[in-house]
Amino acid sequence: MELREIEIFLALAEELHFGRTADRLHVTPARVSQAIKKQERAIGAELFKRTSRNVQLTPVGAQLRDGLMAGYQQIQEALATATAAGQGITGEFHVGYATAWCGDLIVAAADTFRARHPDCLIHIYESPMLDPLGPLRDGSRDLQLVELPIDEPDIVNGPVLFSEPRALIVPADHPLAERETVSVEDLAEAPLVSITGQPQYFLDLHYPQRTPKGRPIPRGPSTTAWQEVLALVGAGKGISPTSARAAHYYSRPDIVYVPFRDAPPVEYGLLWSATGNIPKVRAFVQTVLETAGQETAAVRR
């Protein structure tokens, strides 16, 4: 079995979907199907059960996956180490993140990166809400994982890694707190607590001036600190939109997170300076992509 065929098999074992596997490996679904059929003929047994609705590993397929995975990871690590030596991936690398859930992904990716590039020291920081792009511009950060959109001529937009549904933070005693869901139109019902320091186009998307029907959204206090947003909402000074996942990290007795039923998701992506250390950035971006893919596959299973 050739290395590319092993990659196809292991990717399909994670994704359990021919289309997603093809997209992930930048091949056609037909190429994936051909590779799996070739492997099954060589082994003499089915590796996957296919129906019109799903794809599942057979016991033989699961055994093959477990047997191949350790060796494949060793090959990848050896290739990554050799690449690092050739590209000079040594010294220090500074990575920022915007939210706790972004931080979880960065920390997991950093652990893998350290194993692959032991001569490169990783530093991880929470990105400031005030002037979040400043650290990229002054060189104190090499890479950041943040909420989008960001559209700046000196900043490179990497891949969008994931998206999260939105929720509205409201005071625990507010009428909206009793609802199962809220609408974007409900932003007109109370002052909007917002942040400052981000580009205006970013604020216009996340903290709009008007609802989709044109109703003005009253403005409440603004701040440069996330904990102050929670405190202001808890004190009854207004309401504020955020990612629904924030409820798992920042629960408080004086606030409630109510899911939006009609708001677009919050997207999160990687950014780096156009003049940054490109070999290190590319290596870390690849590691983050692999880590994000593994976490997504684990959730699906």
Description:
By secondary structure, the protein is α/β, with parallel strands linked by helices. It has 10 helices and 12 strands. Helix 1 packs across helix 2 and helix 5 crosses helix 10. The radius of gyration is 23 Å and the shape is globular. Belongs to the LysR transcriptional regulatory family.
Distance between the termini: 26 Å
Architecture of the largest domain in CATH? Answer: 3-Layer(aba) Sandwich
Q: Tell me, what's the shape? A: globular
Order of helices and strands: HHHEEHEHEHEEEEHEHEHEEH
The percent range for helix content is: 40-55%
The computed structural class is alpha/beta
- The CATH topology of the largest domain comes to D-Maltodextrin-Binding Protein, domain 2
The count of DSSP E runs of length 2 or more, i.e. the number of strands, is: 12
- CATH hierarchy, class of the largest domain: Alpha Beta
How much is the radius of gyration in Å?
A: 23 Å
Average pLDDT, rounded to a whole number, is 90
Counted by DSSP, the helix tally is 10
In total, the number of domains comes to 3
CATH superfamily caption of the largest domain: Periplasmic binding protein-like II
Major sheet characteristics: 5 strands, mixed
Sheet with the most strands: spatial strand order = 4-3-5-12-6
Into which percentage range does the β-strand content fall? 15-25%
Low-confidence stretches: 296-301
Oligomer: single chain
